[in-house]
Amino acid sequence: QKEVEQNSGPLSVPEGAIASLNCTYSDRGSQSFFWYRQYSGKSPELIMFIYSNGDKEDGRFTAQLNKASQYVSLLIRDSQPSDSATYLCAVKEEGYSTLTFGKGTMLLVSP
Amino acid sequence: SQTIHQWPATLVQPVGSPLSLECTVEGTSNPNLYWYRQAAGRGLQLLFYSVGIGQISSEVPQNLSASRPQDRQFILSSKKLLLSDSGFYLCAWRLAGGYNEQFFGPGTRLTVL
Fold this sequence. Notes:
The complex is a heterodimer of chains A (111) and B (113). Chain A contains no helices and 11 strands. With 111 residues, chain A is an all-beta fold. In chain A, the strands form 2 sheets. In chain A, strands 2, 4, 5, 9, 10 and 11 form a 6-stranded mixed β-sheet that branches. In chain A, a hairpin with a 6-residue loop joins strand 4 and strand 5. Chain A is globular. Chain B starts with a strand and ends with a strand. Chain B is mostly beta strands and 113 residues long. Chain B is built from no helices and 11 strands. Chain B has strands at 3-7, 10-13, 19-26, 32-38, 44-52, 55-58, 64-70, 73-78, 87-94, 103-104, 108-112. Helices cover 0% and strands 58% of the residues of chain B. In chain B, the strands form 2 sheets. In chain B, strands 2, 4, 5, 6, 9, 10 and 11 form a 7-stranded mixed β-sheet that branches. Classes of the chains: A mainly beta (111), B mainly beta (113). Chain A binds chain B through residues 32, 34, 36, 42-46, 49, 88, 90, 92, 97-99, 101-104, and chain B through 32, 34, 42-44, 46, 49, 51, 59, 90, 99-107.
């Protein structure tokens, strides 16, 4: 059974702080990792993806991957109220055409 | 650039009625297509995916079915809706042989009464 675990939250941070969102996965054969943002009532929007161990930065977002620990995280620097949303972690296992999604972490950024 | 459309945006149907949701993708060829359902307060559940015309893989046995009559068209159907079919239905696509990122359509919110 492929599993992707996320803390449901809500994770509350003040405006301007760093938000840290975490995700663990069960399948060591996983090869690709994705972060989506979903505003209430809207469809998920891809933020970024990572394949290799280490950090990948895109603007205010940094994805971090540690395959040995089966752990992927998303850091949001200078958090804004507009970042308030549910963040979904998704994992692709080797040999599969599908993604397994976590249930998401709700992030609340207060002004 | 690629665009994905879903319709209708919202739908209210009585129990036992049929269902047909449509998804189309523009600006790409031979995409992989996916149907997900997101029930209130729950995660994304993969229902079906397709790697080509007429090729459908079912992830969850239920009273839903899917078809892909054209390269960029994906249809989700039911002959008789259940209350438990209520939810947010999302279609997604990705480039075949690409980097595996999936891109979602705007979704259809279905309420079964």
